[in-house]
């Protein structure tokens, strides 16, 4: 009951009461006193009744108010609980003034702070706060959509909102606009829902679908999708259109049966049914012959998996074209039948020479089955009859021509050696790269055995299989003639076993023969391949060492004696033997083998007289040299740490301009007692003893640091050449050592030149090629020193990434009086020019030599004609003078 109704009722009641009561009193009495009394009683009754009525109404209103308050609180709690579990945040906006279209935040729920990180105060502080936090890519779109809210009264938007922590969250914003009766906006109410996770899923799904579509379309293998119920094509990729010859529209009107042969219909039905019932989604259907649009067929390997495609069960298929493989398999079957039936041994290796397959004839010849050879190389057959140069030449021809044939000795599984005629062909791929090697061999044992037996008996000792005196004479004749021409040395040693007679006397001649065989083996293994050890008879051995010199003799003699001294088991006995050695040298001690053997025998007798188990020289000079060599080696080991080494620099001059264009760093040994020792004296000893690597590293670091100092001083520096010994060049850490020296000095790499001798370069040409290539990556220059003194292979020289050829001074000395030396120098210069290499001649001492070299086209020269090797200070002055001359010009 509302207030107006209560007032009206009370007014009506009051009027009725007054009028009715007054009328009743007039009827009851006309006495004034009584009428006044009754009127007072009536008034009091009206007041009492009114009070009671007001009490009832007020009590009822209070009760209703309490009920309404309780209901309001219940509804508020209910709304709060709903809002607390709801993922959405609720907000309301109100006009900033009556009738205004600008709104300010009136209310935001607690969930808003959970979603955005901002509380109510942040939202109420700035009316533009909301729009400023929207991602810049979304802001213009969201701002423009506010006009739709005013026009339609509602709006739904999705955009990115910057969280208080800096990241962005995707928001779903739903808004309604409330207006009053006059149509003026009164309130905006909206909800925010964090849809970041949903959006990320949508993005991922979109990316995944796009990637799948790209992979499907760009896959080079034919792919298609078919309906598992109707077998009709639902989709094909471009590769399928190309492979089958049908367009996409044609495919979509076809079924699987249209690309299968009629005779495969039953097999296709079984395969389709098996695929439909397969528990696994992926299934390989095997190899099929498919039809193209033009009627031709091709082999494919079918695999695929089931999935739901646009609401229907489907399978996606990959059809790999295997026609080439099938043809290759047919060819291989034919080849295999020929391979197995051939009476000639056939083997196939991979590009690295590892066996892949052999035929039965190959097993019959070699004794090795395929299982025993898989993964191994033909090295298992090496007989030891061919040296490294033989195999290098074989591989050179294979690389250059793709084919090699010739007679070769190999070893059977039993250890028996046999000869064969071998043809090797390289099998290359379409890019010209070698993939396999094919070898075909025919055994020639019977004929070769007879020839070899006759030849062997004529030249080798029957017991020890060492060269006999006849073969020794032949080899000595060649060695002595070569040494005489090149002014070199040849050493002859005679070795006798000490107390060998006691072996024969105590253990018998058969045991003595076994000892001789073992001693012969040890001696041969302790020498180089070009050296010769021969048995004269009994326990006497002659050792021929071509190209040996005084510094070589002592280490070789010690090595031979050490190999003899190793214990040898003879049944239940352990035998230890020693040997005595006499040494003679060509040409000092004789010019023929007989003379040298006589000298060596005399020295041997002296060794026997002086206690055995030692060696003696026929000449006093060699013996003195040996003692000096041992002393130099002892002192040399401390030269670096005692700071006794110094570097001198010899300028290299451009023959056309006369200017210094380089320098060679030459080490000198300032011995405290011997004075300045020539490198020709101590370098060979350093190489033999192994100290050369430490000295070489010192030279490298010192030369680079000195050149870096000249550069820092502003001098016109030139590349400094540093010699690499064979020990340094063969060391696996060479590149790292040089790189470290360059980095430590800070010198540009192009100012570093490394010199290696021709003999070092050609010792293992394959290794040299790879090592030089590795060094060139550092940016250094490389030159071949003493060129022309060794045995160069021009085919390998072309592969060396060198910059210079250095003509040895032995040829330069003969210019203007030795036609052979002049021809060699001219040829080397011409060769270098054809290979785009710089030539430099060393040891130039006369104007005549310089004139010849200039006429021949030599690029650079070095020698006493220009300057001897000088200390670093003097060479720095040369560079400074060169700079002043250049400025003056």
Structure at a glance:
The chain is an alpha+beta fold and 889 residues long. The strands form six sheets. Strands 23-24-26-27-28-29-30-31 form an eight-stranded mixed β-barrel, surrounded by four helices. α1 packs antiparallel against α2 (32-85), α17 packs across α18 and α19 packs across α21 (620-636).
Note the topology.
Elements: H1 3-28, H2 32-85, E1 88-95, E2 103-108, H3 110-116, H4 120-125, H5 129-132, H6 136-152, E3 154-162, E4 168-179, E5 185-194, H7 196-218, E6 223-227, E7 233-236, H8 238-244, H9 248-251, H10 265-277, E8 282-291, E9 297-309, E10 312-321, H11 323-341, E11 345-350, E12 355-358, H12 360-366, H13 370-373, H14 388-401, E13 403-411, E14 417-428, E15 434-443, H15 445-459, H16 469-486, E16 490-497, H17 501-507, H18 509-525, E17 532-537, E18 540-546, H19 550-565, E19 568-570, E20 573-575, E21 579-586, H20 593-609, E22 615-617, H21 620-636, E23 645-654, E24 660-671, E25 675-677, H22 679-689, H23 692-712, E26 720-724, H24 726-730, H25 734-745, E27 752-757, H26 758-763, H27 765-776, E28 781-787, H28 794-797, E29 804-807, H29 809-812, H30 819-834, E30 838-842, H31 847-856, E31 860-862, E32 870-871, H32 872-888
Parallel strand pairs: 21-22, 24-26, 26-27, 27-28, 28-29, 29-30, 30-31
Antiparallel strand pairs: 1-2, 1-5, 3-4, 4-5, 6-7, 6-10, 8-9, 9-10, 11-12, 11-15, 13-14, 14-15, 16-18, 16-21, 17-18, 19-20, 23-24, 23-31, 23-32, 24-25
């Amino acid at each position: 009951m509302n207030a107006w109704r209560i007032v009206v009722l009370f007014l009506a009641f009051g009027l009725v009461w007054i009028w009715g009561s007054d009328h009743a009193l007039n009827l009851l009495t006309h006495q004034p006193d009584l009428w006044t009394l009754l009127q007072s009683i009536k008034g009091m009754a009206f007041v009492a009744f009114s009070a009671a009525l007001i009490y009832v109404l007020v009590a009822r209103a209070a009760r209703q108010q309490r009920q309404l308050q309780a209901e309001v609180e219940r509804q508020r709690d209910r709304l709060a609980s709903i809002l607390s579990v709801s993922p959405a945040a609720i907000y309301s906006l109100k006009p900033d003034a009556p009738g205004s279209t600008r709104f300010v935040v009136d209310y935001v729920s607690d969930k808003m702070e959970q979603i955005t990180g901002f509380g109510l105060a942040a939202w109420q502080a700035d009316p533009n706060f909301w729009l400023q936090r929207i991602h810049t890519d979304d802001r213009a779109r969201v701002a423009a959509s506010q006009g739709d809210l005013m026009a339609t009264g509602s709006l739904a938007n999705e955009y990115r909102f910057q969280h208080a922590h800096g990241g962005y969250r995707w928001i779903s914003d739903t808004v309604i606009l409330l207006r009053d009766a006059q149509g003026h906006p009164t309130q905006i109410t909206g909800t925010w829902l964090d849809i970041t996770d949903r959006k990320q899923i949508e993005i991922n799904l979109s990316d995944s679908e796009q990637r799948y579509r790209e992979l499907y379309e760009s896959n080079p293998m034919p792919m298609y999708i078919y309906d598992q119920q109707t077998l009709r094509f639902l989709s094909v990729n471009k590769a399928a259109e190309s492979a089958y010859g049908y367009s996409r529209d044609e495919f979509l009107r076809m079924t699987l049966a249209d690309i299968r042969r009629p005779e495969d219909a039953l097999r296709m039905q079984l395969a389709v049914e098996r695929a439909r019932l397969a528990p696994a989604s992926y299934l390989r259907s095997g190899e099929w012959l498919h039809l193209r649009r033009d009627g031709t067929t091709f082999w494919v390997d079918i695999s695929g998996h089931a999935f739901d495609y646009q609401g229907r069960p489907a399978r996606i298929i990959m059809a790999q074209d295997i026609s080439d493989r099938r043809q290759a398999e047919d060819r291989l079957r034919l080849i295999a039948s020929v391979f197995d039936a051939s009476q000639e041994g056939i083997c196939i290796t991979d590009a690295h020479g590892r066996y892949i397959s052999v035929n039965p004839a190959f097993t019959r010849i070699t004794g090795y089955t395929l299982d025993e050879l898989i993964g191994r190389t033909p090295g298992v057959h090496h007989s030891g009859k061919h040296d490294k140069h033989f195999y290098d030449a074989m591989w050179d021809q294979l690389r250059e021509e793709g084919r090699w044939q010739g007679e070769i000795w190999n070893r059977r599984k039993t250890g028996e050696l046999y000869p064969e005629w071998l043809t090797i062909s390289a099998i290359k791929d379409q890019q010209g790269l070698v993939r396999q090697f094919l070898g075909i061999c025919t055994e020639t044992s019977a004929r070769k055995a007879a020839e070899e037996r006759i030849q062997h008996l004529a030249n080798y000792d029957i017991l020890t299989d060492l060269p006999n005196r006849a073969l020794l004479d032949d080899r000595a004749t060649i060695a002595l003639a070569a040494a005489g021409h090149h002014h070199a040395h040849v050493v002859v040693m005679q070795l006798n076993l000490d107390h060998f007679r006691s072996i024969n006397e105590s253990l018998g001649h058969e045991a003595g023969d076994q000892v001789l065989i073992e001693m012969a083996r040890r001696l041969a293994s302790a020498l180089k391949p070009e050296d010769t050890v021969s048995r004269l008879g009994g326990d006497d051995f002659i050792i021929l060492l071509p190209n040996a010199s005084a510094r070589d003799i002592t280490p070789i003699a010690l090595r031979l004696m050490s190999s003899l001294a190793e214990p040898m088991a003879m049944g239940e006995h352990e035998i230890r033997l020693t040997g005595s050695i006499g040494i003679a040298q060509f040409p000092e001690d004789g010019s023929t083998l007989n003379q040298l053997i006589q000298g060596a025998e005399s020295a041997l007798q002296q060794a026997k007289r002086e206690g055995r188990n030692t060696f003696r020289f026929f000449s006093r000079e060699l013996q003195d040299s040996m003692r000096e060599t041992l002393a130099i080696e002892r002192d040399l080991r401390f030269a670096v740490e005692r700071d006794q080494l110094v570097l001198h620099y010899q300028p290299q001059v451009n023959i056309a301009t006369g200017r210094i264009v380089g320098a060679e760093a030459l080490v000198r040994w300032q011995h405290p007692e011997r004075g300045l020792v020539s490198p020709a004296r101590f370098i060979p000893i350093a190489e033999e003893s192994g100290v050369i690597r430490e000295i070489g590293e010192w030279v490298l670091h010192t030369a680079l640091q000195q050149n870096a100092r000249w550069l820092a001083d502003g001098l016109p520096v030139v590349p400094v050449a540093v010699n690499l010994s064979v020990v340094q060049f063969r060391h696996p850490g060479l590149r790292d050592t040089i790189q470290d020296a360059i980095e430590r000095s800070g010198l540009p790499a192009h100012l570093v030149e490394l010199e290696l001798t021709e003999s070092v370069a050609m010792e293992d040409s394959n290794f040299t090629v790879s090592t030089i290539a590795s060094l060139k990556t550092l940016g250094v220059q490389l030159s071949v020193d003493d060129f022309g003194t060794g045995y160069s292979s021009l085919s390998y020289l072309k592969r060396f990434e060198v910059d210079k050829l250095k003509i040895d001074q032995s040829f330069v000395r003969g210019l203007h009086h030795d036609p052979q030396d002049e021809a060699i120098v001219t040829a080397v210069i011409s060769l270098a020019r054809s290979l785009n290499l710089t030539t430099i001649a060393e040891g130039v001492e006369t104007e005549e030599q310089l004139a010849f070299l200039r006429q021949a086209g030599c690029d650079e020269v070095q020698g006493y004609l220009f300057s001897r090797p000088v200390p670093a200070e003097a060479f720095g002055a040369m560079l400074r003078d060169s700079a002043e001359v250049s400025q003056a010009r």
